[in-house]
Each structure stands twice: as structure tokens, then as C-alpha cells.
Specification:
Layout lengths: L26 E7 L9 E7 L1 H7 L20
Antiparallel strand pairs: 1-2
């Protein structure tokens, strides 16, 4: 079984439900603390969420999440 087809055990930061792999999900939020400091002084942590949960809870308009647009290229494109 390929990694893309395996079940994940990721839980959404916002709703607490499990996240199934999909067109845009599984989303990872990579938080960098002390972003304005030298790289060696920074701290990092990753959280996971559904794209819909992120869009619904963000203070910015959901349209700002152009990453969910099917035409938005992947890193490999």
C-alpha cells in the first residue's frame, strides 16, 4: 500500500476530528516562534487541520486560501 493510500491518524487542531487524505487535506500548519530572531533562536512546531476548518476560523476572508484552488500548482509543478 502506498503512503498516499494509507489511513492517517492525524487530528484537526480546530474541530478535533480525524483528517482523511483528500484533494487538499491533510493540511499542516507549521508555526515558527521567534520568527524575527536568528534561525538558531527560533522554535518550530507543526499542527494539522482540515482546510475547511482553517478557512472558517481564520480572520482573513476564505478566498485568501488560494491553496484550495484546483489550479494552484503543487510544489512539484
Amino acid at each position: 500500500m502506498s503512503a498516499a493510500n494509507e489511513k492517517t491518524n492525524y487530528v484537526c487542531l480546530f474541530c478535533g476530528n480525524s483528517i482523511e487524505s483528500g484533494d487538499v487535506d491533510l493540511c499542516a500548519l507549521h508555526v515558527v516562534a521567534r520568527f524575527d530572531q536568528l534561525r538558531g533562536e527560533q522554535k518550530e512546531q507543526t499542527f494539522f487541520c482540515h482546510i475547511n476548518c482553517l478557512q472558517q476560523r481564520a480572520a482573513v476572508h476564505p478566498g485568501n486560501f488560494y491553496i484550495s484552488d484546483p489550479e494552484f500548482p503543487s510544489i512539484g509543478e
